[in-house]
Amino acid sequence: MLTVESLKKSYDDTSGRSAKRKSDQGTRVYAVGGVDFEVHEGELFTLLGPSGCGKTTTLRAVAGLERPTEGRVTLGGTVLFDSDHGVNVHANRRGLGMVFQSYAIWPHLSVFKNVSFPLEVMPRAKRPGRKEIEDRVGQALEVTELGAYSSRPATKLSGGQQQRLALARALVTRPDLMLLDEPLSNLDAKLRESMRFELKRLQRELNLTAIYVTHDQSEALVMSNRIAVMNKGRIEQIGKPREIYTKPATRFVAEFIGTSNFMEAKVVSVTGDEVAVDTAQGRLLARGVEAPPAAGDTVLISVRPECVDLSRERRGDVPNEWAGTVLTRAFMGDVVDHIVGVGDLEIRNRSNPNLSIAPGTEVYFSVPPDKVTLVPVD
Amino acid sequence: MTLASTSTTSRDDDPASRPGPAPRPGENKPVDRLLRLLRRPLSFQGLLVGVAVVVVGYLALVPLGYLVHDTFLGSGGSGVSLDAFARAYGGNSQAGQMLLNSLWFAVGSAALALTLGTALAYVQVRTDTPFKGLFFAASLVPLIVPGILYSTSWIFLGDPSTGLLNSLLFKPLFGSSPINIYSVWGMIWVQGLHLAPVTFLLMVAAFRAMDPSLEESAAMSGASRLTVLRRITVPLLRPAMISAALLMFVQSLESFEVPGLLGLQNGIYVFTSRIYFVLRAYPIDYGAAGAYAIGLLVIAAMGVLLSGWLQRSSRNFQTVGGKAFRPRPVELGRARPYVGAGVILYFLVTVILPVGVLVYASLLKYYTAPTSKTLGRLTLDNYRAVFTMPLAFTALKNSLIVGIGAATAVMFLAAIVAWVVLRTKAPGRRVLDLLAFTPIVIPGLVLGLALSFVYLRMPLPIYGTLLILLISYCTRYLPYGMRYASSAMAQMSPELEESAAVSGASWFQTFRRVLLPLMSGGILAGWVYILVVSFRELSSTILLYSPGKEVLSVLIWEQFENGQFTTLAALGVCMVALLVLLVSVAYRLGARFGLQSDSAN
Predict the structure, then answer these.
(1) Which of B374, B387, B471 is nearest to B168 (CA)?
(2) What is its subcellular localisation (chain B) (predicted)?
């Protein structure tokens, strides 16, 4: 539905022309350095990454609020931006809905007027009548559970209500594509969690197509159909939340999403999708490896702490079982972490809080082969 | 320039900053607290507070008291009467005409300044216009070119017969001289241009405080650029714009330089020039002057109060507060060169042209349009005349004495008052804050008149000395000094003082060794600022100086009255050079403390 092709945006340029001239000299720094992705109808597509990774710039380029240096943006059959053909549809002609991080609720207007604004500024030919405006605003407010606040000044709403108002305003024109720029980041932790499900429910019920920008990995995992993990202006991996988490394509993705144990290793043998590797502390077996490397390659092993099984006794009948010593333990309420030392390596384990092993205890731990992820060395 | 008094900032809510014993139940009534305070042994701190109250009260209230007393009771003293008002406003149509001119002039200037200032601020903050550096260079004009010089420059440019614009531009091109600077429109033009940088700075602050995503979300909603401007930007900035407009209105109403130089020639009177005229006529009708002054004071006070009220109420418009917004300038695209040209034109007309013509005039024997002949006869004679003029050195010396004296006294007083207001729970500190803020509503000319009422009567030999100028400047600039001192004070955490106290330092040791050093940057910036504005002060000085006690601004005024335009220009160039020096020092010092320009003439 939305296609973004080799989108680039360089720093501190003020017009496309001057940027191009400077990029010829090869000294430009890019905020977004060539991004490609596609958003399918009815999906919530997330751009995830740390601050300064270019996710917001990418979103604003799709919105038309920022002029990309290069690239092509197509929505449905319409070209919104094309640097080669000098096409740049102005933001107000793109027909998108957008929710801003600050909500950008107009403080001088009432709740109703905030939502009716997009309908009122439509070109005369398309503008709905007064009655229809009232109906559609009513609907949008109903969906976001703000029906009772219609005549209030917008500033008299709480944070969560303002957030929903921003959503209602973006929904009221029934745009083909919704852009959500960190919409939950200004809410407190409790509210943020409930709004995640609320947003996801709305998106599913109304069958919205949306691009969602966030730096919060758990938010991204909960809400998205697909995630693009961005770093330094580039996309590191695009995939479903589970893929991103269990099969990180790069070290950055593995580090950024959740926590991980990393080990350098050398590939010893490859049989089908089974790969045996040697680490400094011993041999590991990985199963279900897509695109297996060749024997002799150096790879990075990533193991999630919750995939490490910890026990006081040697089990013997499981692969990848190592011996070690508990160095520290950290109780976090719903989970407990044990750091286990193996030689000079520290392995983090995360388990049910019932388990509690005192530091200094000799333990055994194992990793199921299908939980061992191979990441190419950058 | 925010005119909100420090009492609107409620940092003093912090109970931790309360010195002295905590109030026990039943002792909370102000009277009780006051009594308790009086019963306490007299401390250095208490003494200081007491002295501050007396000095500030004296500066702010005594002149106003005398003004009201002398106007209503007359110097003859036969009960309250409105005779003075009848003489001033009744009988002829002149008063009506004057009122009309005053309002026309003030409204026109405010409108011009607001339009220019807002447009410039929008372009500066919200677009990717070229030459952004020029905006702030232009915004320095009211600081470094005093009103009296700016008006003179425009006389050189817009005089119907000798003005360069007429003789070089319109006469050859269109065969007529349409520009007449000696008209209300001319006055509005000069005053409006002189004030535009002040509105510019106010509106830049307003634009920066506004979340740009408010406009972006309107664009995303499908609104065109014009619709966004009309339905989002302007309504959101309306409180700031009205407040700025009111301030410009008051500033114009209080301005004496522009109406004095441009209006008096053709008998166009406004309040200020009327007061001046009445006091220069014989016999002097002090009552009538006082009646005009009170009229002006009332209108000015209403404007300031209304503007302060609007500024406070406009805070309701903040949704997500305390965030620094990422600047996301609108790309002008094809309009960029035209906007850039506009910026250059603005800079040319408001800075280069007036300053250039002043320099040009200072090099001539008598003022005339440049031809190959006059350009060949440029001379430094005027500068020679200025440097050999004995009065010039006296005036410079007097300006320095009064300026440095006023700056020192004001900043010392302001530091103490700011401390009392922000850091203590002393009873009456709000009154003290209000008192220190009061002089901002008193027009310079009104203050001059009121002070002459006070000291003509007083047996102490103050009238006719430099001391009266010092008192006048201290009064006028106390509110500005307060702004610097209280912002410097507010930047400091009360815990710094508390930790000094816990470490065993006495109050005075804390003040001297912790507070003063930490505030010194802000205090110094305020000190230089007051020195700068003192150099330009004319409107109260003109009623208070006596022969032999001239200051620089008065000397310039005298050159104008004697028709010595080229000497005036040379003197002006020297003064501008001096002010450029002072202002650049002030900027270097004040960068951290938000040095703001204003146009207190």
Answers:
(1) B374
(2) Cell inner membrane; Cell membrane
